[in-house]
Amino acid sequence: MRIAALDLGVTFIEGADITKLLRSSLGIVSGLQYSKGDNLHAQILVDRVVIAAGANSCDPLLGLGENKLPMLYQPGHL
User: Fold this and answer.
1) pTM exceeding 0.70
2) Confidence class for position 70, pLDDT limits 50, 70, 90
3) Which of 5, 19, 34, 76 is paired with 41 by a 20 to 30 Å CA distance?
């Protein structure tokens, strides 16, 4: 599946810490800033974002209240 995704132009960024979600004027996530390793800070603009943070992630970037990112499946509700 990974090879097929790469063939379609998907970019995988693994082991990075998201430092900021970039949003359009409509509030839609349009990219992110991240850090990886020693002093590597980067930004990527995207059409879609998949954040695989884990079911019990409490990362504040995932949002709180009305700013919460939508989840396809809630923990314990598959």
Assistant:
1) no
2) low
3) 5
